[in-house]
Design brief:
7-stranded mixed sheet
């Protein structure tokens, strides 16, 4: 094997030119000189160094390529990681935005805040929930609870009114609104609330809050006779009333029996129903004018005067048909006095007899009176002469009606004869009931 002197490449035996550089091959003898051997070794070493340098260069290039590749890989990985993180963040943001824009999220947040008594935050969430889902029953109810928690009665009432308007049969709304109406004394609104409720069970539940208008048995107006007024009303509460013109309240007289108007005059009757829960209803009233024409005073017999007699004297009263007479001695007679049924014994001494007529309606006439001074004498036994049965000492005058009678001074009684024994039938006592 020969070596090209120009490039050091091996030249196959028999070739005249270098296969690498194309230099012509000089034929030399087969023996080698020392110089050629040294040169050959140098060339070989140079070739090895060149190869080593090439290998080092290639290794450096490969190492640099690997380093660059790793760097690119790390960069790509980092970029991918950053992209993934960004995508995740974007996804979280989108998910949160979606959650925040959902009714379920806003309502759950409102409920949680209310349970923690964070009413301001709860109010913010429930308002957003209602924007997302209008007229939602649970949200409207929660809104009322939040206002109640804040002590805002006005807005709580408005919230529950809206709730019941949208959901008429939602019982929990009534449970809260009814006490708030009572607290605010909104009795008219309370009645309308119960009346407009479409659920019979809810109406029954709050029946004790219901009020009604009392009714009078007769219409207001003018009457010529005494009237008896009955007051009726639905419900199991009390009816209170007044007849003095004042408005009835829970301390007024409770109606238990009919009201009697028996005297002439004008009376205004006012009545009001108070439920079992103490809720006052409307005041109803009626004005009644009674104009009773009094009957004439009764006629009393005998007339006023001084009398003496050996026998008991009787006082009579003329009683027209349709009337009853009542009488008394020395006090003005009324329909509560003694009923006149037959002539009355005249008592001894000086007394004023009063009598009054009363019709079937209980109306009293003017009062009549007569003043009697009466003494009973003993008859003198005379065989040939019959004693006078009664001696009128004073000429009597006619009985007169006295609307406001005054006592008549008693005249001096005629003394009985002292020589005659007292009659066994004589009686100084009188019985007004006879």
């Amino acid at each position: 094997m020969r070596i090209c002197e120009n490039c050091g490449a091996e030249i196959p035996d028999g070739d005249l030119f270098c296969p690498k550089c194309g230099a012509e091959v000089h034929l030399v003898p087969d023996y080698e000189t020392m110089e050629s051997r040294v040169r050959e070794n140098q060339m070989h070493e140079e070739e090895e160094r060149a190869k080593e340098a090439e290998r080092e260069r290639i290794a450096r290039e490969e190492a640099l390529q690997k380093k660059n590749k790793r760097r690119r890989t790390r960069t790509i990985l980092a970029v991918c990681i950053l992209a993934a993180v960004a995508a995740a963040l974007v996804s979280v943001i989108l998910v949160n935005r979606h959650r925040e824009s959902s009714f379920e999220y806003q309502y759950s947040q409102a409920k949680a805040a209310y349970d923690e008594k964070n009413y301001s935050l709860a109010l913010d969430h429930v308002e957003k929930a209602l924007q997302l889902k209008k007229k939602d029953k649970d949200s409207e109810y929660l809104l009322g609870l939040i206002y109640e928690g804040q002590g805002d009665t006005t807005n709580a009432i408005t919230a529950y009114e809206t709730l019941i308007s949208d959901h008429n049969d939602f019982e929990e709304g009534y449970d809260h609104l009814v006490p708030l109406y009572v607290q605010a004394k909104e009795y008219d609104l309370l009645q309308k609330l119960i009346e407009n409720c479409q659920s019979s069970s809810i109406q029954q539940k709050f029946a004790d809050y219901r009020t009604y208008d009392p009714e009078f048995s007769i219409k207001e107006g003018s009457y010529s006779s005494a009237q008896t007024i009955k007051i009726t009303c639905e419900g199991d509460g009390d009816i209170v009333y007044t007849t003095d013109g004042s408005d009835p309240n829970d301390s007024s007289e409770i109606y238990k029996s009919p009201i009697s108007l028996s005297s002439s005059g004008t009376t205004t009757v006012k009545a009001r129903y108070i439920s079992k829960k103490g809720i006052p209803g409307n005041i109803v009233k009626a004005k009644y004018t009674i104009k009773i024409n009094k009957a004439d005073a009764p006629v009393i017999s005998p007339v006023s005067g001084t009398y003496s007699s050996t026998e008991s004297m009787k006082i009579t009263v003329d009683v027209p048909t349709g009337y009853r007479a009542y009488y008394s001695f020395d006090t003005r007679a009324t329909k509560n006095s003694t009923l006149y049924t037959s002539p009355v014994n005249m008592p001894t001494g000086s007394h004023i007899f009063y009598a009054v007529l009363v019709d079937s309606d209980g109306n009293e006439s003017s009062v009549a009176s007569a003043t009697f001074v009466y003494s009973q004498v003993t008859a003198t036994p005379t065989p040939t002469q019959k004693p006078q049965s009664a001696i009128a000492v004073q000429t009597p005058s006619a009985a007169t009606a006295t609307p406001t009678p005054t006592a008549t001074p008693a005249p001096t009684a005629t003394p009985a004869p002292t020589s005659e024994p007292a009659s066994e039938d004589g009686d100084d006592e009188w019985d007004p009931g006879m």
